[in-house]
């Protein structure tokens, strides 16, 4: 399991609808990527969440665009007239993260296209596993591209990590925020999704996923990797409370 690294050659345009001011950049492989800056206000923990959650989704076969690491040179700021963008680039010198750009995509809307129950259930299960608080009707973080649904923006996952001292201890948390998930009304097969998906995330796979996070994104690489691995391992143990919470939340919608 590995993740590609590309070098940012050109800053194309900001995406100002994002709170952290992501941008479209061109890589040295001629590809276009949506870059998430390590120097943005949400900090490097958002990049860790983006990488870990996104790659977990990809392992599970969910539609997440390719994730790459991006080497960004602060000198790129010299060609940018916007002072805010200049400062962001300078503060993000080094290794950042990006997702493959999906040109022509539009925001996914359940009023336009209804996801099937199996896919909706897998996405709800996945977001409950990684404690992603940002897949709501207000901010779905899903795109429609070539008539297919794609999952983006997982920087708000693992939100427990922002209280580091309690992070690992929250592994058994039922994740009550699942009640606000945009796809919960369509997720009629959460138990089946649990059976199928949990089996794919073996301890060996989880270890490989955590090893993907660059060491310089951690204050203490060895110890912090261990905490993320412990969180995920404990969360996937039997009697998964986040699964029961998701099922109960969906049942409550029809009461």
Describe this structure in words.
- The structure is a single chain.
- The protein has helices at residues 44-59, 83-91, 117-129, 190-198, 203-211, 221-235, 241-253, and strands spanning 5-14, 23-27, 32-36, 67-72, 94-100, 106-107, 142-145, 148-151.
- With 255 residues, the protein is an alpha+beta fold.
- The chain has two domains: 5-100; 106-253, no CATH class.
- The strands form two sheets. The protein has a five-stranded mixed beta barrel. Strands 6-7-8 form a three-stranded antiparallel β-sheet, with no helix packed on it.
- Strand 2 (23-27) and strand 3 form a beta hairpin.
- Helix 3 packs across helix 4 (190-198).
- The longest helix has 16 residues, at 44-59.
- The protein starts with a strand and ends with a helix.
Summarize the structure.
With 255 residues, the protein is α+β, with helices and mostly antiparallel strands. It has helices at 44-59, 83-91, 117-129, 190-198, 203-211, 221-235, 241-253; strands spanning 5-14, 23-27, 32-36, 67-72, 94-100, 106-107, 142-145, 148-151. It has 2 domains: 5-100; 106-253, no CATH class.
